[in-house]
Amino acid sequence: MTARDAVRETERTLAAAGVPDARVDAEHLVAHVLGVPRSRLAGSNGALGPAEQEALAALVARRARREPLQYVLGEWDFRRLTLAVDPRALIPRPETEGLVERCLALLDAVPEPRILDVGTGSGAIALALADELPGASVVAVDLSADALALAAENVARTGLGDRVELREGNLLDSADGLFDLVASNPPYVPPADVVGMQPEIVGWEPHAALFDHGQTDGIAAAARTVLRPGGWLVLELAEGTAARVTGRLRALGYDEIGVTSDLAGIERVVEARSR
């Protein structure tokens, strides 16, 4: 079977299962089995032998059950890193890359920043910051032992264990000392939104990392106790919550509050400076 035929057949199967962007996912899956980047698939003369066809069929069956593509592949790119991903933690998303951008900009003049990543999940934020800020040391905390186990795999995978420390704890309970920046992509989906969510999200990603039960406000309040004077809090936001969160940050005594929109124009990241 040629790669082109495999893509066409896979696309038909996924489309019949209701998978969005079936063609894109088909290309990812075939490229994965062939061991080539998706960008090179169109020019590839690769053919799938019996072993590759069997492997592809198993992956396609998983995706057709609406398991997220990233979990099926077992890894996903986040900024300059390729991270292991599975249902122990949320899938790293482009919106969170925007949060990392803001952290990098805010720490540009700090040669050796100490950073706290709250709710690290797969470790994406902590590892990206350590990777792109060679002088940084990062403490990454999560309440989930399963998520921390996945983060540990990614620490080993990226070779950043000398500057990223993983700790188990609720919000900021396990933090010690002072930090130049506290970053978090907290659970922010309103629980009522579970109705109508894509099965890839609600059926596979960990609900404790998805649904908002006051974590954003809790992190904002607790961060003031661990930020150095002039340190920054950077949070990812749910759509439509920027005004409420910025108001809360003002009430807590933060200064220089700003909001950054994502590529879709949604107010997605808020930053605030500690006095």
Structure explained in plain terms:
The protein has 275 residues and is of the alpha/beta class. It has helices at residues 3-16, 22-34, 50-64, 69-73, 94-106, 124-132, 145-158, 199-202, 207-210, 215-223, 242-252, and strands at residues 75-78, 81-84, 114-118, 137-142, 164-168, 179-184, 227-236, 255-261, 267-273. The strands form 2 sheets. The chain has a 7-stranded mixed beta sheet with strand order 5-4-3-6-7-9-8, with helices on both faces. Strands 1-2 form a two-stranded antiparallel ribbon. β3, α6 and β4 form a beta-alpha-beta unit. α2 runs antiparallel to α3 (50-64), α5 crosses α6 (124-132) and α10 (215-223) packs parallel to α11 (242-252). The chain is elongated. The mean pLDDT is 94.
Chart the SSEs and their pairings.
Blueprint: H1 3-16, H2 22-34, H3 50-64, H4 69-73, E1 75-78, E2 81-84, H5 94-106, E3 114-118, H6 124-132, E4 137-142, H7 145-158, E5 164-168, E6 179-184, H8 199-202, H9 207-210, H10 215-223, E7 227-236, H11 242-252, E8 255-261, E9 267-273
Helix pairs in contact: 1-2, 1-3, 2-3, 5-6, 10-11
Short description:
The protein is an alpha/beta fold and 275 residues long. The protein has eleven helices and nine strands. The strands form two sheets. Strands 5-4-3-6-7-9-8 form a seven-stranded mixed beta sheet, sandwiched between helices. A two-stranded antiparallel sheet has the order 1-2.
